[in-house]
Specification:
By secondary structure, the protein is an all-alpha fold. It has 5 domains: 2-101 and 280-385, no CATH class; 116-179; 399-464; 485-560, Photosystem I, reaction centre, subunit PsaF (Helicase, Ruva Protein, domain 3, Orthogonal Bundle); 585-652, Helicase, Ruva Protein, domain 3. The chain is built from 24 helices and 4 strands. The protein has a two-stranded antiparallel ribbon. Strands 3-4 form a two-stranded antiparallel ribbon. The longest helix has 25 residues, at 200-224.
Length: 662
């Protein structure tokens, strides 16, 4: 409850601070009101040839903002609730470590108690009777079922394996921590590394792998710096980035120390082409802030209402009573609980509950006043254009990105050329540090050529007037440099080609066996003919002819399948029979074979290398050999099972990490 109270106080304070902006709207000649600035921005955003509303800034300022009014009342109510909460809450009595029953404890003198091993509700599994009882019961059930089969049979042998696994599990889990009451092993999430079953190792491995993936992708994008190579992957370079990414923590730290992790702030674009930062953005920001604050206020009310619902009586006891009981159970070893009884604790009022009650009441009152007092917005035609009624269909020439007042061609933008000029200056300055004719000097020459080429190539693109950064245009126009329509169209074309080629192959083969054993010449033919997929079958009549043929072919192909008598629908057979059309056994067998092949190849590689370094730096020839030999994995696995080489002896199994040797 105390932590909840602190969190809610912080949220309430932040809400008051943000909502107070509504009371401090700058007026006068310096900035104008928020409404005035909104009108100014809307007039700037008008298409060419359209005039802004004749409404003056004074008239606009006279019209109250519904958002500002709402925030004012909400902030006023919350502020009143906070004042009442502070003034009515009784001061907490100064007792040393009250949750420990008044015992004055110096936490620095008891470091050994603050570990999960000293928990009063956990103990090692090897010392837990209920843990051994559960495994004993499990063993009893397995042995009871084993007696139903003849000794020496395959089923009897399987039960022997289960018995050994249970015994091994009992030994392996001996050093884990189990609950005293239920005897179940625990996963420890306290952040300790030297405890069996700690969640820190899996978490660290997950973060390492996720970072490696991200660092490899980041390195590839930095090295290519080419949008075309994001579509057509440079495989050798990608493999190089993946291989070098294994040491990403060291590389990331070096970049952070050298200041190369993030780009300079002047290279960061803070808005789209239609949303350049300007003095009139404050009204839109105020509206977004208002919506966010309403959500925050509602969440605060909901959470603070918990203080009003404290169950009392003999069934559950009061919240204070239960708090004392829990705190006494959570005491470190050797500390006694407080002699204060539940009745006395319940009689003492909670300052946190009182604070939350008054805060929630004030905020709720503010919300009610805000909703009831805010005037409805007047319905004006196209209010963002100053009240001018515009027929959009009469101005088609203006609705193009080229007529945007915040964009212009990059070749005419001074800031665009200034950025490239500054970049060239830095590169040439760094080039002078190396001898002319050296490899480093030549690399800088390439960078200079790339910058000059970029300046020429981006000349016809549209740049922001304020920042000089080129824009990607997503307005649906095709005749604009930098339009997103061409990449989207190319992506859709390639996706359609792949789908059309696969569809053509399925139609021409009409044989389930050829979906598994691919007819390569026919597949290549379908891929070649698929390039004209948008034109293919363009006539509606031809499409209907194909549909008719498909229905007739389906009728023939499904003739040997089994259908339901009542609904006439073909069935997929999952009874384990192989000689039935539509049997699920073939797809399942193929899946299991491929999964086993992958696992067997990896197992063979690990056994042959037996070197942790080669798990990071893959021995490619050996890996390919293991993959090739893995195709016969069912035979090899059977041989190892017969020879007893599939599993290592139990005395070679390590039951703990290097930090926890018995």
């Amino acid at each position: 409850m105390a932590r909840l109270g602190n969190a809610l106080v912080c949220v309430a304070a932040a809400t008051v601070l943000a909502a107070a902006v509504a009371f401090v709207a700058p007026v006068g000649p310096r900035g104008g009101s928020a409404q005035t600035r909104g009108v100014e921005v809307s007039s700037k955003a008008l298409p060419n040839g359209l005039s802004e509303s004749p409404v003056t800034g004074t008239e606009a300022a006279a019209e109250p903002s519904p958002v500002a009014s709402f925030l004012k009342w909400t902030a006023a109510g919350l502020l009143a609730g906070l004042v009442m909460a502070v003034s009515s809450s009784a001061p907490a009595s100064a007792k040393p470590l009250e949750m420990f029953g008044g015992v004055d404890i110096d936490l620095e003198d008891t470091p050994a108690h603050w570990t999960i091993k000293a928990s009063p509700v956990l103990e090692p599994c090897k010392d837990n009777k209920k843990f051994h009882k559960k495994l004993k019961d499990e063993l009893y059930k397995v042995k009871k079922n084993q007696q139903k089969f003849a000794e020496g049979s395959a089923a009897y042998a399987r039960f022997n394996k289960k018995i050994k696994m249970i015994e091994l599990r009992e030994t392996a889990y001996g050093d884990r921590l189990c609950g005293k009451k239920d005897g179940l092993p625990r996963t420890i999430a306290t952040g300790e590394w030297n405890v069996r079953g700690s969640a820190m190792w899996p978490a660290a491995i997950f973060l390492y792998i996720a970072g490696w993936i991200g660092w490899a992708g980041r390195s590839y994008l930095i090295r290519t710096n080419d949008a075309a190579k994001e579509i057509n992957i440079d495989v050798p370079l990608a493999v190089t980035c993946m291989a070098s990414g294994f040491s990403w923590p060291v590389a990331a730290w070096q970049e952070i120390v050298n200041g190369e992790m993030a780009v300079p702030s002047d290279q960061i674009h803070n808005g789209g082409p239609w949303n350049q930062a300007g003095p009139g953005d404050s009204f839109a920001s105020m509206a977004r802030l208002g919506n966010a604050l309403v959500c925050v206020a509602a969440a605060t009310v909901l959470a603070a209402a918990v203080a009003f619902v404290a169950p009392v009586g003999p069934r559950g006891g009061s919240a204070q009573t239960r708090g004392v009981e829990v705190s006494s159970k959570a005491l470190p070893n050797g500390l006694s609980e407080s002699p204060v009884t539940g009745t006395e604790a319940a009689a003492e009022p909670s300052p946190v509950a009182s604070f939350l009650k008054w805060t929630a009441a004030g905020l709720l009152a503010g919300l009610v006043m805000a909703v009831s007092s805010s005037a409805p917005a007047s319905a004006k035609p196209l209010e963002m254009f100053g009240g001018v009624d515009i027929d959009l269909e009469d101005t088609p020439a203006h609705w193009t990105i080229k007529a945007s007042p915040v964009l212009e061609p990059c070749k005419d933008n001074k800031k665009f050329h200034k950025k490239l000029k500054d970049e060239l200056y830095k590169v040439k300055k760094n080039q002078q540090k190396f001898a002319e004719g050296s490899a480093a000097y030549a690399r800088f020459n390439k960078k200079i050529k790339m910058i000059e080429l970029r300046e020429t190539a981006y000349g016809d693109r549209l740049c922001g007037k304020k920042d000089g950064l080129p824009r990607t245009i997503a307005t649906g126009e095709w005749n604009v440099r930098g339009s997103a329509m061409w990449p989207a169209a190319i992506f859709l074309y390639i996706a359609g080609w792949i789908g059309w080629a696969g569809r053509s192959y399925l139609i021409r083969t009409n044989d389930a066996a050829k979906e598994i054993n691919i007819d390569v010449p026919l597949a290549v033919t379908c891929m070649a003919s698929g390039f004209s997929w948008p034109v293919a079958g363009s006539a509606a009549y031809a499409r209907f002819n194909k549909k008719i043929k498909m229905i007739e072919l389906r009728e023939t192909a499904y003739g040997d399948r089994l259908c339901g008598k009542k609904d006439g629908l073909p069935r997929t057979i999952a009874t384990g029979e192989w000689n039935v059309r539509g049997s699920a056994m073939w797809p399942a067998a193929i899946f299991l074979y491929i999964a086993g092949w992958i696992g067997w190849a990896g197992r063979s590689y690990l056994i042959r290398t037996n070197d942790a370094a080669k798990e990071i730096n893959i021995d490619v020839p050996l890996a390919v050999t293991c993959m090739a030999s893995g195709f016969s994995w069912p035979v090899a696995a059977w041989q190892e099972i017969v020879n007893g080489e599939m599993a290592v002896p139990s005395d070679q199994i390590h039951n703990g990490g290097p930090w926890n040797q018995s």
